[in-house]
Fold this protein.
Amino acid sequence: MNLSQILFYVALGAASIAFIVGGVRAAPRTSDRRWPRPAEIVVGFVTAFFDTLGIGSFAPTTAIFKLRRMVPDERIPGTLNVGLAAAAIAEAVIFVGTIEVEPHLLISMILSATVGAWLGADVVARLSRRAIQITMGVALLIAGTVFTAVNLHALPGGGTAMNLVGWKFPFAVGVNFILGALMSAGIGLYAPCMITLALLGMHPIAAFPIMMGACALLQPVASLRFFQTGKFAWGPSLGLTFGGVVGVLIAAFIVKSLPLEWLRWLVIVVIVYAAFAMMRSATQSSPTPIAARSNS
């Protein structure tokens, strides 16, 4: 284990402790505090399971939450970040230490995404219900487009590099900052991060420790903002946590790989339908910010 990995695990441990403390402190202030329902645990298990295999979890979870009306739309971004944080941490612990990526690139991209998430969560907390619905509707359409391109082999498969030099290094770091900020709005980082690195000539496997390490650190950090504002659903978050960790462990150590092409087609259909449902809801929502309505 090199120095960068040691520093990452130290930072991850600190973020995890802060996440737990933040959750415990937020519990008494949460009006809908309850234990998760079985369906919420199943959602966490299924989406984290396939997330570990490279599908991504934010878009499928958002689609399920929307179609099953399990979480209010304006609380979905917070619930995703809070509920799937533990699964992301488990993935990072497994993958960051087993795939060798150039240390400076790994740490820089993880930190940039984390800073983006910290700033992005504060912005999301101020958005109206309609703005969140529109943002997530667009995000789901983008995710569907990306999944379709992947299945049709219309995106580059990547090169052989495990490092980036010259202008590619700061470009990738800057992109991850933006992706980290978008994570706070419920837009998953996995697919766009993997595509960016592939376009820059990196080996596809190099994306795994970068994107998993970034999500593992940024989700607890972003969650601290959501704990402060209360814009997350307590029961579904716990369900994602409990089911998600089990899903990660089974996918990583037992199943390890699956033919995912047909599953992606199913996910595409579901998330595109959910995207239009989210946009339709946005046309029926008041543009007044939630904070303003609660103070009136």
Notes: Residues 288-296 have pLDDT under 50 and may be disordered. The chain has one domain: 3-285. The chain has 13 helices and no strands. Residues 3-285 form one domain.
